[in-house]
Amino acid sequence: AVMTVVVIFEFYAGATLSKGLNRGIGTILGGGLGCLAAAFAQDVGGIGNSIVVGTSVFISGAAATYIRLVPRIKKRYEYGAMIFILTFNLVVVSGLRAEEVMQLARERLTTIVMGFVICIFISLLVFPIWAGDELHDSLTSKFEHLARSIEGCLEEYFKVDTDKENRPGFSFSSCKSVLHSKAKDESLANLARW
């Protein structure tokens, strides 16, 4: 539960909600499929048990890794796919040594739910910081920077040659900062959706 709080607690409320739900869904899917694969491996028995476990770990790891590379899934569910791989491997491999695979999955899910509830309580009810507010402030400042850049370009273009010596040259640094801020704005927009 403590590790869940450490891992999913984020600055923005939407980020905490996103990571918490991704962790929960990844754990449920990974634990459920891991239990099925462990039960099938135990039914096979003998040397086939190790072959089934190794094959299932390889196939699920390859499939989840491939799914993580799809752009729409990568943007919102990459963390859930990573937790799926982790939980699936934990449950399947522990099935080789322990008979209580279901108990392990149940305990892991319970501790994750406890950590998730603590994080959501703090993040949404005690001191919420919304990514939408930050995105709004960021876009407002970017429009102001663009307006100043356009105004500076027009002044530079229409200025009289005699006045050229008295004025410093125009700088495009504020315009460049707006152009290079796409990743941060997309991240904030994604978190604001949550």
From TrEMBL:
GO biological process: malate transport; monoatomic ion transmembrane transport
This protein's UniProt keywords: Ion channel, Ion transport, Membrane, Transmembrane, Transmembrane helix, Transport
Similarity section: Belongs to the aromatic acid exporter (TC 2.A.85) family.
Protein source organism: Citrus maxima
First and last residue of the signal peptide: none
GO cellular component: membrane
Recorded superkingdom: Eukaryota
Main location: membrane
Name of the protein in question: Aluminum-activated malate transporter
Topology in membrane: Multi-pass membrane protein
Pfam families given in the database record: ALMT
Source organism phylogeny: Eukaryota, Viridiplantae, Streptophyta, Embryophyta, Tracheophyta
Protein's cellular compartments: Membrane
Xref: PANTHER family: ALUMINUM-ACTIVATED MALATE TRANSPORTER 10 (PTHR31086)
Entry's transmembrane regions: 21-41, 47-67, 79-97, 109-132
